[in-house]
Amino acid sequence: MEHVTQFFIPIIILLALASASSIVISVFKLKFLPTFATEILIGLLIAHWFNADMTQWGMEGVVEGIYVLSLSMMMFLSGYDVDFDVFKEVKAVDAEKKSPGRINIFRTSIFIFALTILSSAIVAVVINKFFANDKFLGVILLTFVFGSTFAAMVVPILHNEGLAETVIGRIISTIANLSEIVSIGFLTILMIILEVNREYVVIFLLLVIFLVLYRLIRRFKLGKIVDKVAEGIDHLATRIIIVVVLFLVFLSDYAGGEYILGAFFAGMLVRHAQFSPKVVESLARIIYGIFVPLFFILAGTRIDILAFFSEATNLWLVLIFFFAYIVVEVPVFLLLKWYNLNTVLPSMILISCTVIVPIAASHIGLKHGLFDTAFAEAMTLASILVCVLGTIIFTIEFPFGHFKKKYQEQGTSNAQNP
Asked: Of 234, 209, 245, whose CA–CA distance to 70 is shortest?
C-alpha cells in the first residue's frame, strides 16, 4: 500500500465515524447528548482495533500529527473565546431571589477559583500515595489538573443554552477561562523547568514575540488593516491566521512548553486584532466541522478500555479521579448567596469538566516518571466521563423546569441593556 494513500485512511475513518454520530443524534433526536460526547465514546469503543491497525500499518506518526493539529486548532478557538470584558461588576436581576444583588464577576470568579485551587491541592495530597516518585511535584501537577476547566467546551455550551449573556453564564465562563489560562500557563512553566536541556534563549524569544505582537495588534488593530489589504484576495486573512497559529505552536513546542500554549496565545492575539467576523466565522466552521471531531475521537482512542479494565484496581482509580474532579469544585457553592441549589449544582458539574489539561499532564507525568500508565489513563478516562456526564446533566437539568426560560429572557434583556 502506497504511503500517500495510507495517509488518508485514518482521516477517512475518523470523519466518517464523526458524521455517523451526528446523523444518529439527529435521527433519534438525542438533543440531550452533546455531539462531542458521542465522539469520545466512539473513540473509546474503537480504540482497541484502531490503534492495533494504525500500528500494523506504521501510521502512528500520521495519527499523532492529526491529533496535535486538531488539538492546536481547538486551543486556538479557546484562546479566541477568552473575553476580558466580563471582568466587571454587573447587576444580577435574579429570577430565583426576591431581591436583586450586585455581583462583581471577576472578583467573585477569581475568589472561587482560588478556593478551588486550594481544595484541589488538598485532594491531590490525599491521593499522593499513587505517585511513583517525586510526590511534591506530582501533587503540584495534580492540583492544576483538578483545578482546570475545559473552557473551549464550556463556553459553547453556555451559548447553545442561551445562557452566555446571563450573570450566572458569565460567571461560569469567567471561572472556566481563568482556570484554563492558569493551568495551561503552569504546564508550560513546568515543562520549561523540567526540560533543562532546552535553549533558554528560545523561551525568552517566545515571550518577547508574544508581548510585541500583543502590543502591536492591540494598538494598531492589525486585523482591520489585513481585511482592507485582503479585499479582492480570496481567503488571505484566513491564511494569515493559520500561519500565526502554526508558528506560535511550533515556537512554543520548540521552547520546551506545551504546544497548546502557542495555539491558545494565537487565539488571544487574533481576537484583539479585530479581524472581520466573517473571517473568524469561516475558520471556526472548518475547525468545528473537521478538527474538533477528529480530536475528540482520537482522545477516546488514547485508552484501550479492554486492556485497561482487565485490572480491577484500575476501576477504583477511575472512580477516585471522577469524584475528585467534582469534589474540588465545592467552592462554587458560594454562589448560593445569589442562586438556588438547582442552579448552582449543575453549574458546579459543568465547571468540573476538563480534558485538555489531564491529557497534557498525563504526557508530562509519564515522561518524567511521576506515575505509571494506569494512573495516567485513569486520570484521562475519568476526565472524559466527567465531560460526558456533566454536559448531559447540565443540558437536561440547567436550570430546572421554568427557570431556563427565565434565564434566557434575562440574557436577552442583558444583551439589549448592557
From this structure: 245
